[in-house]
Amino acid sequence: MKPTSRAGVLVLVLPAVLIYAFAVVVPFIGTVGLSFTRWNGYGSPQWAGIDNYIRAIKDTVFMSTFGHAAFYIAVTLILEVGVGLVLAAFISAQRFTGFYRIALFIPVMLPMVVVAVLWRTVYNPDVGILNAGLKRIGLDSGFVWLGDPRTALLAISVVSGWVFAGFFMAIFLAALHRLPQDVIESARLDGAGEVRLFWKIKVPMIRNVTLLAVLLCVTGGLQGFDLFYVMTNGGPYNTTEVPTTYMVKSVFRDQEIGYGSALSVLVTIVGLFIAVGFWYYQRRRPTDVEY
Amino acid sequence: MRSSLKVITHVVVAIYAVLALLPLAWMMMSAFKDNGAISLSPLSLPTSYDFSVFADAWAVGGIGQYAINSIIVTVVTTTVVLLVSSMAGFALSRLQFWGSKYVLTAMVLGLLLPIQAYFIAQNQLFEAVHLKDTRLALIVPYTAIGIPLAIWLIKTYVDSMPKEMFEAARIDGASDLSVYRMIMLPVMRPALVTVGIFTALAAWNEFLLALLYVQDESLKTIPTGLLAFSSRYATDYRMLFAALTIVTVPLVIVYVMFSKQITEGLTQGSVKG
Q1: Where are the domains of chain A?
Q2: What is this structure's pTM?
Q3: What is the pLDDT, as a whole number, of residue A224?
Q4: Which H or E element spans position A46?
Q5: A20 closest CB neighbour out of B26, B147, B211
Q6: Which residue among A62, A145, A181, B204 is least packed, with the fewest CB closer than 10 Å?
Q7: Which residues of A are less than 8 Å from B227 in CB distance?
Q8: ipTM computed for the complex
Q9: Could you report the per-residue pLDDT of B109-160, keeping only the tens digit for each?
Q10: What CATH number belongs to A59-284?
């Protein structure tokens, strides 16, 4: 339809466009621009060409942040998407699901900082319930979970799993609920056991939802910040340094705005590559079941 | 289903749920214990229930002020996102005008851009226009972040509605603005609820920008405020647990009351995004 008046269209569309342009588009272009400069926030930025990018690639701490993010993503894929799928399968087989649906989703509602402060205390060697519980069952570890380079990253990944397993469970439950019952019934009549039915029929049928869950988990993992900043802020010995904590340190602690911007651009490119890769993969293999 | 399999699934889910809820139960229990009991016997139940610690955390510890700030930021952000996105979503769905394609493409690209892609220059920009350490320093970016997904969800929703609805009003002589106000706003409600839930929770929980843009104690929202609180009361575990309980319990109550809408809103929001 044609609009009744041009002014009307402007009134409808302009507020959203202006806010978005001011707070996202302009800053995005600005960040790309700053990535080619040397600037400490005072005076004017000095042109630096691609120096920041060369420095980033040689920066072993920055490169290690991708390794840490990859580890974090691998663990959370198991603890969030994997556990979420299993929980959904187990819960959908039961009659009274309301309690679990609600109880396991609660952590998703909480601010990540609240979760991080709570779990920092859970892991606390003096007052935390983790060591207290281990002691109760005879494993007096006295372990400093977040202070030990061998366990810190894993400990943080577990917290992320605690939060999002319930979230992915909810997504999978909704998807399983939408499956056409006649297909499942006929497979059952053909004598397929429940386990086989789940892996051979239901899981392939919710393939698109699973793919999306994996994408959310991977891109979310690459952007992780809150848990890391509050629980370890990159330590001990940079073993939990992830792209965003390192970026924030470069800009706000070291005042290296140009360098931080280059890191930001690199991380964004990696994220976009992953998203486009998923999109390609999904397009190449059309869905078997539409719903 | 075979009964042995059913029993196993029951047991596994029950054990998982107990383990998952344990930290929250421990947090609430510990708020009633004194610091000696918290560190000497972390697993014991409280011996008495004294609620004054919550009043202390709220008033003396400043959680009350953080909560007020979070409410203001969240309410303003959500209202503005709903208003501007419903207008734009309607126009992009129903009206053909020059530039609509570009706006839509920019919004879809916006769905792919994480905060990390632009917060550095955004910080410089906000500093230059003296936005930092004001409530707008959070309201403006939270609104902008919410807009692409909101427009997308609302546009898709309006797309699915019958054309005749608008054409009839048009023939009666209504302008686009009155079609939006009289017809669209009421029928969009389900999409607005989803967008509202998604936007409100994102604003309530956001941390990175709040950490960078607001240093003023009296303007901090719950995430940054709680972090400041946790360093002020680093060894006063009772107060810390009380503060954690205060910010957790209302969210749990809200969730239990509206669990269906919230689960749908959050999962739909991220699935479409």
Answers
A1: 59-284
A2: 0.93
A3: 96
A4: strand A46-47
A5: B147
A6: A181
A7: 113, 117, 230
A8: 0.93
A9: 888 899 999 999 999 999 999 999 999 999 999 999 999 999 999 999 999 8
A10: 1.10.3720.10
